[in-house]
Amino acid sequence: MAAHRFQDHVVLITGGANASGIGAVTASLFLAEGAKVFIADLEERDIASYLGSKNVGFCKCDVSSPEECEAAVQACVEIHGRIDILFHNAGMLCPPAHVPNQDVGVFQKVLLTNLGGLFYLSKVVIPYMQKQGKGSIIATASTSGLSGAMSISPYAASKAAVINLVQTIALDHAKDGIRVNAVAPGLIDTPMTAGFSQMPALRDDMLSNIPMGRAGKPEEVGKAVLFLASEDASFITGHVLRVDGGTSADCSGSPDVVKHLAAMQRQR
Ligand SMILES: NC(=O)c1ccc[n+]([C@@H]2O[C@H](COP(=O)([O-])OP(=O)(O)OC[C@H]3O[C@@H](n4cnc5c(N)ncnc54)[C@H](O)[C@@H]3O)[C@@H](O)[C@H]2O)c1
């Protein structure tokens, strides 16, 4: 049998308390490969059932607070003895609105959660990784951070800044043996996007923008995270791995434009 890639590696995951979310599914993949996992989230929610395992730790943590991020890193090191991989995955969306109608408080909370969390956690985790001479940091960005995204300016700007921060930390700490990367998911079926299923017309339009014609599964993001965290990615840092069924490879325009182009082809 092949050796587990992450035997006894310690992985701190933020935003992993929803069983069908990207964080918890990625935690299961790490556990299956021998890792010890520590989850930091606002509530225990679905993970309460497997918290008895000696390989799983948890603390309540609001990642928009620098103090709570520091406490989460310390709790992880106390329970598991070290920290090899940080996966900053906690994130929040904002309601759709143009800038004049976006709430300033929402803007600030989204920025502090999605971006601030990565900064605060990295600030505390990097010195541990420097002492170990090795480490891997991975953040969940989004295809919304690769270009503008209509009506969700706080979210899109926060994810764009996550990508930039990932690249900068990667440069600053490449010689410390710390690799820093991001995944950029497109539409993935998780609790965050469950509401779209209640609006079939919106969901159909979203799916028609995805070249592979379907939403992604959380494990498809998790497998990309494990790749970036593994020795297979030993020369990869400052990278953004898109997990989006081809969405960000396409700049053809709206589904209507694509339909017109298809009709033109049929006429030739
Ligand atoms: N689902 C998608 O289509 C999609 C696409 C691109 C990016 N993402 C990103 O993936 C990540 C995971 O989201 P998901 O889709 O699995 O949904 P999810 O709702 O299951 O996961 C988000 C998690 O973050 C936690 N969280 C939110 N605010 C927090 C805070 N302040 N402190 C600590 N934890 C907090 C939530 O409690 C939840 O467990 C997010 O960063 C999200 O922006 C999701």
Automatic annotation (TrEMBL):
PROSITE patterns: ADH_SHORT. It comes from the Eukaryota. InterPro entries: NAD(P)-bd_dom_sf, Sc_DH/Rdtase_CS, SDR_fam. Keywords: NADP, Oxidoreductase. GO terms for molecular function: oxidoreductase activity. Pfam families: adh_short_C2. Belongs to the short-chain dehydrogenases/reductases (SDR) family. This is Uncharacterized protein. It comes from Saxophila tyrrhenica.
